Amino acid sequence: MSRGGRGGFGRGRGGPGGMSLPFGDDIKPDYSVSELFPPCPQPTQTPLSKEERATISRFRSHREKIRNGPMYTVMARKRGQSDPFTDISRYSARYLRQTRRTPKLDARPYVYEFFPVELYSTIGKDEGGEGEAGKKKRLLFSSLDTLNPLEEMMSEEEAEGKVEEGGKEEVPEEDDEEEMDEFDDDDEGDYNGEQYFDGGEDYDEDMGDDRGDAYYD
Amino acid sequence: MALPSASTVELCTLIVSEIYGEVSSKVAAALLERGRLTLSSLCRHTRLPEKTVKQTLVVLIQQHLITHFTHLEGGREDTWYDCNWIACYELLHAGRIIRCMEERFGNDGATIISNLLQLGHARVGDFLAAYGISTSKGRKTKAAPKESEPKIEADAPISSVETLKAVMGEMLKGRFLVEVKDYDMHPPVDVENRVRAEITKRLRGQFTSELKLTKEVNIQLEKRLAEMKAGDSAEHAGMKRKATTAGGRAKKRKKSAYDEDEEEIEYEIDEDLIVRVNHAKFLLVFRNAELISLAEKRISKVTGQVYAEFLKLMESKVHQCHPRIGPEDQDDPKKRIKFTTNDVVRNFPKDIDLTDSVVDPPKDPVKKRKKRARSLSSLDSDSDDGRRSKGSKHSKTSSRASKKSNGKKSRRGSRDLDDSGSESDASVSSRDRSESEEESDDSDDDMDPEVRKRKKRAGLLKKHLELLAADTYHFVKFEGKRGNGEWSIDYEELGKKLRGLEIEKIVEERYTSVGTRLLRILKDKGKLEEKQLATISLTAQNTVRALVAGMHEAGILLLQEVPKSLPPQVSRTYFLWYVDESRANSLVLSDVYKAMARNMQRTNVERQKRKLLIEKSERTDVQENLEEYLTKSEKEELAIWRTREDKLLVQLMRLDRVVMILRDF
């Protein structure tokens, strides 16, 4: 197809001053039919080096810490999008990782000069007056013990577990009142009902187990 | 700061979403797509309630991802927000940064940096207080319930707040942490405008001509901005004098591991200081790592180690990849940062073995025989010297090396060596002797073995540095003979080489080695016609045309037409191929950004596929006993997910390396 098209184009405009072959006729263009899907060797990734593994394990734990921290936010799902099958409240949901719709800001001290005035009320400073009345705020410090397990860099699996635990301690109770005020309250996190079914047979087992666990508890 | 392209916006949005969640990424995306916005328009574009937007803005400002500036407009103050896309991108460096600090400052360094990365900026005092509490809490909570995991407890040595403070001081000194200034929180354009306005106001009275005023203002502005970019460069910036207490001396001795200055005045980090992670410095460290690996590949492993030590020295003086320097300073050889061979020798770690790392060129057999005769008759060292400088004239490198190490090894040089302070006390007496014997040759039998060893080491180090200088990449530049040879580094040139190399790699992958050959020829010769290209590259014209067309399509090569006559005719025109490196660079860069975005999207798809399983595995009850609550197939599936994510993440980091080379180095 394209071959014919190109040929026609060349010949049609081949008059003087138009498109003649720019390089003279030293080379005969190859007009033979080329394979439609020529074999294309897929590039393969070189195996991961030790250093790379260490780096990504650090990256991952860092990401995990932020996700468990007060700043990670997920979008609320719009009203009417909730799935009647999976978004029912279940017992096992209490163990799910807590997600928040708005960041939790009042837990730490801020350097007010670095923020614009219109955000002062958001970070807990009265405009004009001094904030920080009464109780002293502290930075949320992800303590050493969450970092240390990663020392044995290859056992990321374990490490992740520890990270979660460390972060979890403060999370559960606080967010409820914050989340609820602006968004519709589907407590289930971001369950997507369709997901449950499209995986087909792969997920049958998971589902079964999930349920099992819930009751088992 | 260049405006972000569409692919960059896509990537940055994905990164922010990956780290800080969807709401944050939505706000960031609105700002990236539309440029600076006020709060109300931001709410309109994101369709989020104002309270949420405000809270998210606080988070992102705290993390330095968003800058803000308040203008007085029509009697009303308007605050505009702008997204710093480079900062968004640099979220990806977290893993590298933590690793890097772990290597240098151990566990404490890693803890500090990882917490600061999470916190954005923080007051040192607050930070230390939080640490103190977390450790005491950690101890308490640990003691009781975690009996089952003695392993974790074992390798969690909890450092004292004092040590942490000292480490922070060191990090500040090394510029890994820097003080946050108020101009860090504003978009650079606004800062520039404000500074310009200030300077203009100040100078207005002194100039009558507007032209001269503008010129002077520009000069001063440039200076001020350079100062801002360099930050506070004083040695004890951000430090304050330590209050001397009765127990001060004992304390000093105790933590001497971190305390290196021998001055009477002790400095410690100022607790009121607000610090942040200095990404620019880390980029420099990454660039050094890249250069070292290149040197290792091109010369040898040991040379790479020598180069690493040299770069470490440079690191104390250079804090950015591209320091902002005025055009008049650029070519001034006095302002170049130089280090001597002796500096390197002094700081060179003992455990790197240099022996036999450089092979001397074979000496003239006649001279060798003479030498043997001489050693038999035990002639004095002076004649031996003469023999050596004569004998080694064969090779350029070695002759330079030996001449300098013999003749020019000045008293100063050897004293420098002695100052190193790391040698054993046993060699004290031999030091004095070395002063008088410094002219003698290495092979002198009378010399103390310790001193001879050290001397030999210095000579070898110098040879390595010469190798680095002699390489076509010019890893170091010879500057002068002071202090046993003085060296500097032309970072700009090396950066260009690194970029070129990276592009060549990509071209090789796509257009085979012949493509690389063509590219190199064009780089070397400038503009060439196809026929010439075929002749020079010894390739059939057909092949050349196919490759050149492909590379043209990708934007790596460009074509220029030069008509032989007027009116221009196609048949009577030269078609010249050439390479525009900066254009090729930016095109490849945008491709890489796209690839990275696809990579992250792929990760998200994979995650979405296993969403329920991942959620389950993250459940607190499941976390506590993974073995029991997960079935075999679930575990397998999780393992698959984990290896896939690993692979994708590593690929992301590899692409990030390319981006750093093409953009930052």
Automatic annotation (TrEMBL), chain A:
Q: Which residues cross the membrane?
A: none
Organism domain of life = Eukaryota
What's a GO cellular component annotated to this UniProt protein?
A: RNA polymerase III complex
Stretches of Acidic residues bias are at 171-191, 199-208
Location of region: Disordered: 1-71, 147-217
Which UniProt keywords are present, listed alphabetically? Answer: Nucleus
- GO BP field: transcription by RNA polymerase III
Compositional bias, Basic and acidic residues, is annotated for 160-170
Q: Gly residues bias: where?
A: 1-18
Can you say where in the cell this protein is located?
Nucleus
PANTHER family assigned to the protein according to its UniProt record, in alphabetical order:
DNA-DIRECTED RNA POLYMERASE III, DNA-DIRECTED RNA POLYMERASE III SUBUNIT
Assembly state and interactors? Component of the RNA polymerase III (Pol III) complex.
| Similarity comment text for this entry | Belongs to the eukaryotic RPC7 RNA polymerase subunit family.
Physiological role: DNA-dependent RNA polymerase catalyzes the transcription of DNA into RNA using the four ribonucleoside triphosphates as substrates. Specific peripheric component of RNA polymerase III which synthesizes small RNAs, such as 5S rRNA and tRNAs.
Q: What is this protein called?
A: DNA-directed RNA polymerase III subunit
What organism is the protein native to? Ascodesmis nigricans
TrEMBL record, chain B:
Q: What is this protein called?
A: DNA-directed RNA polymerase III subunit RPC3
A single Gene Ontology MF term assigned here is: single-stranded DNA binding
The free-text function statement in the UniProt record for this protein reads:
DNA-dependent RNA polymerase catalyzes the transcription of DNA into RNA using the four ribonucleoside triphosphates as substrates. Specific core component of RNA polymerase III which synthesizes small RNAs, such as 5S rRNA and tRNAs.
Record region (Disordered): 230-257, 353-455
Specify residue ranges for compositional bias: Acidic residues: 435-448
Compartments (UniProt record) = Nucleus
In what ranges is there compositional bias, type Basic residues? Answer: 239-255, 389-412
